[in-house]
Amino acid sequence: MILVKDLKRYYGTGETVVKALKGVSFEIKKGEFVAIMGASGSGKTTLLRILALLDDATEGEYTIRGLQVSSLPEAERSYYRLTQVGYVFQDYALINEMSAAENVYILSMMEGKSRKESYEIALEALDKVGLKGKHSKIPDELSGGEKQRVAIARAIAKKPDILFADEPCANLDTNNSKQVLDVFKELNEKYGQTIVMVTHEPWHTEYVDRVITFEDGNLVSDEKKRNR
Ligand SMILES: Nc1ncnc2c1ncn2[C@@H]1O[C@H](COP(=O)(O)OP(=O)(O)OP(=O)(O)O)[C@@H](O)[C@H]1O
Ligand SMILES: [Mg+2]
């Protein structure tokens, strides 16, 4: 589904150049749940942002379902990003003045869907993450884990090809982290959602199929955790 070949990302030029990714290659199959690990500064966020089309690689190839996205014109990249890619941030990135349902349905509304259809899509997504009955709460009335689950609902409402998450549990205690990881696992097992998640915590890898580890801009290990 995702094919990455000799991907490089350099920041700056000349003497001050930072080589965040030094040429990484790997493949992610449809339906896999992959964890990306590695020390701070090893290139995890840089990689995720490129895969989610939020940033460009300096060099290398990147294809999704055979489509060479690295060389698509910006308008098509933008369309693909909006309709096919889900992204979950460490800090939830919710709008505080809006309810859970509104935070989720705003994207469908922007796509031009009707208010009614957008609302139905939002409620279905909130159900999937276990937030039935909380759709009228605003972020301040929710726990950290619930906020992150609203953000996951927003990311999956458009039924993306791939769901990316950059340290989604970084601000959560163990209990809330488990709720969020259980949601990812269920989305993966029940709906076949392909997921790529960056994490620092070794215990999180119990939830995934495969662990890819980065060190200083290089992919240094690729380990299968369970057979599907
Ligand atoms: N916009 C930028 N400009 C310059 N350097 C950057 C930029 N973004 C990242 N870097 C550098 O690239 C390297 C990789 O950063 P990246 O954020 O990908 O690491 P990370 O593995 O996600 O780290 P963390 O675990 O702390 O989130 C680091 O040396 C970082 O300082
Ligand atoms: Mg990071």
From TrEMBL:
Matching SUPFAM superfamilies: P-loop containing nucleoside triphosphate hydrolases
Pfam families: ABC_tran
Coiled coil: none
Domain ABC transporter: 2-228
Key word RNA-binding present: no
Alphabetized InterPro entries for the sequence: AAA+_ATPase, ABC_transporter-like_ATP-bd, ABC_transporter-like_CS, MacB-like_ATP-bd, P-loop_NTPase
Annotated GO MF terms: ATP binding; ATP hydrolysis activity
Domain of life: Archaea
Keyword terms: ATP-binding, Nucleotide-binding, Transport
Family: Belongs to the ABC transporter superfamily.
Protein name (database record): ABC transporter, ATP-binding protein
Organism of derivation: Methanosarcina lacustris Z-7289
Organism taxonomic ancestry: Archaea, Methanobacteriati, Methanobacteriota, Stenosarchaea group, Methanomicrobia
